[in-house]
Specification:
mainly alpha; 6 helices; about 50% helix; about 0% strand; extended
Length: about 160
């Protein structure tokens, strides 16, 4: 590579440190004249932003707003999903819960049953699955909410 493009003696057009998560970018010596090329013309004639731009303002921060806040709870709910898939011989992509008749009502009732058992049972463990009743409550709450949001989306698309 040309020395003018490879050495950094005046400024960098992009981060190039290991572990920065970005792609390595060419560094340009800003104190020496650059040779004319399509790449150089692009760099010289186009304003470069100091950082990347991502139009995500107002969008839900799924990882930092849910997974980051509740990592153990989400992992427990995912483990219960795996238990249920094995119990009913299902694949995850089948989303069986979404096709249960009167699903919202039935998951609400299941949520209530596990919440009640959690209060009654000192151990708070479901004897069939060996998961905490609280995990069943969370799973049923998510299934119920997902069905409610599906219903809402269907109504809004009409």
């Amino acid at each position: 590579m040309d020395k003018d493009v490879s050495e950094n003696t005046g400024g960098s057009l992009g981060q190039n440190q290991a572990g920065d998560g970005g792609y390595p970018m060419a560094e340009v010596n800003l104190y020496r004249p650059l040779q004319s090329s399509v790449f150089v013309d692009f760099l010289v004639n186009k304003p470069m932003l100091p950082t990347g731009v991502k139009a995500d303002t107002g969008k839900a921060p799924v990882v930092y707003g849910a997974l980051h806040y509740f990592p153990r709870a989400i992992e427990a709910v995912a483990a219960l999903s795996a238990y249920g898939a094995k119990k009913y011989s299902l694949r995850y992509d089948e989303r069986n819960f979404a096709f249960v008749d009167n699903g919202i009502q039935r998951y609400t009732d299941a949520l209530g049953r596990h919440l009640g058992r959690e209060i009654i049972d000192q151990r708070g463990i479901d004897p069939e699955s060996n998961f905490m009743h609280a995990v069943h409550v969370a799973w049923n709450a998510l299934a119920r909410l997902e069905l409610m949001l599906d219903e809402q989306a269907k109504q809004e698309s009409k």
